[in-house]
Amino acid sequence: MHEIVRYRLLKMFSGEVQKTESYKTFIVSLQTLEEALKNPETIDWLSEEIIFRHSYKTFMASKAIKEVLSLISKEKIFAQTCQALQMRHETVAKYVDDIYRRRNEIAHQSDRPHNEEEQHRICKEEVEQYISFIEKFVCHIHHLLMDEESKE
Questions:
Q1: Ranges assigned E (strand) in the chain
Q2: pLDDT digits (tens, 9 = 90+) for 45-76
Q3: CA–CA separation, 93 vs 36, rounded Å?
């Protein structure tokens, strides 16, 4: 998601993609502004600023994904992705949030849910399901954004 966001914001800045309302309020530091004014021939400063501004964000919870998609598209990309996956919006949101929760349990809690002592086992089938879903989910988002871009 980070790369998709960076790519689209750079396209918006270059005028190749229609700007969103969220894009118009994207904040850059004064230091970055100085860099931009010193080097008007490049937009590397903007690429670095986008990476810096988003480096601490995970874009893994469904709410965060929806927010970042509204930054880079005027379309309802999350809803359209659900349709492409032939799944209900609520089902996709819950599954995305479950994957995020599971990831946090593994990464931050020694693979234990809150208030439980027993460690969960990482199941190969579960991991394969998650990988398959995430791949389809991100590919659909990418295709929808590219279709949107080609229409502009």
A1: none
A2: 999 999 999 988 889 999 999 999 999 999 99
A3: 38
